[in-house]
Amino acid sequence: MKDMKRFETAVIHEGYDSLQHQGSLIPPLFQTSTFTFPTAQAGAERFAGEADGYVYSRLGNPTVKILEERIALLEQGEAALAFASGMAAVSATLFHLTKSGDHIICSEGVYGCTFGFLKLLEEKHYITHDYIPMDSEENLRAAICDHTSCIYIETPINPTMALIDLEMVARVAKEFDIPVVVDNTFCSPYLQQPLTLGCDYVIHSATKYIGGHGDVIAGIVVGPKNELETISTTTLKDIGGVIAPFNAWLLLRGLKTLPIRVDRHCDNAIKIAEHLKNHPQVEKVYFPGDKDFPQYELALKQMRRPGGMIGFEVKGNLEDAQRFLNQCRLIKLAVSLGDAESLIQHPATMTHSVIPKAERLKMGIKDNLIRLSVGLEAWEDIWDDLKQALDHLTNSNEPNEQTLK
Ligand SMILES: *Cc1c(COP(=O)(O)O)cnc(C)c1O
């Protein structure tokens, strides 16, 4: 692998040489569906894979290529592939790693649509899966069977922020020669690099921190070069979830500020988590940067910083959670995360509503759990908004006191 510049430099420069592009400081946007061949023979050679050169943008595009090379380096992987969405990346990777009769081991709690896709694989393609608590080597070993063909994890787990020891999972998986796939969306490559801990594939919903501006849907897979080449020429090419060149260009633009944005997300989240913990209407806070977080040590070990995502339970039931959310003003009520704007949502009725209630509760997603993506605003303003919404809950939870005043 090539020597990489420091992360903060790599996000700006890696994978692109302006002198190869008429000095254009910014990577050009190749907004084209197809590429002309100088001769019939050259076209035939490109189709035969005997000559380099672009053919058609579903098979490859120069703007997309720059993005892929940059992200591969940031994750310290051999290669990367960009997709139309995080889910296109997840589904193509799982399709690639499994066949009928295979078995997938999953962390307990995955992104809602990943949950849906795993169900579809089971129902239509006889690829089974088990969600297991991956908190110990014993649990993981016990779940592995002779047709397990991949281990799929998210850490931190959305939205309870529970962590999985990536080094432990990678070590056990190696013994059985099972590839480990990590959805690294919540961390971005800046905070966590699963490949350096022995995992095999990293997936991102680039819609989130990598894009960072709430204006693009996209996905990325990073992994072994030969495997990604196969994905590129099969599941990506033939199912067709390719990224639009303009979206790749937007991601290149977003990436440049990834480290400074994520540092600010983390700074803000640390402040907000502290304040949430001390509010009487908050029952529990889930944040890897909290010293009382059960896996605080693991967070220190495998994450550069705690991230910008916080889960917390308000006092009360589902209706109280909804009343609290309806009271937020600055913080926008929306799913997604990693944007400049603080975003708040209700997992039980939104991102995780497809999961049957019993399973959802087993994952620790109670009706009063709120997920907050801490934005880049002044943390004091974010807190003021949360505080007035929480105080509103206090007032409406104690109607007698209110009327007496
Ligand atoms: C958003 C998200 C996805 C899906 O990504 P899209 O870009 O919306 O398709 C997958 N995993 C996680 C953890 C996510 O947050």
TrEMBL record:
Organism: Scopulibacillus cellulosilyticus
EC number of the protein: 4.4.1.11
Record field: catalytic activity: L-methionine + H2O = methanethiol + 2-oxobutanoate + NH4(+)
Superkingdom: Bacteria
Gene behind this protein: megL
Family as reported in the entry's similarity comment: Belongs to the trans-sulfuration enzymes family. L-methionine gamma-lyase subfamily.
The protein's name: L-methionine gamma-lyase
Keyword set, alphabetical order: Lyase, Pyridoxal phosphate
Co-factor(s): pyridoxal 5'-phosphate
Pfam families referenced in this protein's UniProt entry, alphabetically: Cys_Met_Meta_PP
InterPro entries: Cys/Met-Metab_PyrdxlP-dep_enz (IPR000277), Cys_met_metab_PP (IPR054542), L-Met_gamma_lys (IPR006237), PyrdxlP-dep_Trfase (IPR015424), PyrdxlP-dep_Trfase_major (IPR015421), PyrdxlP-dep_Trfase_small (IPR015422)
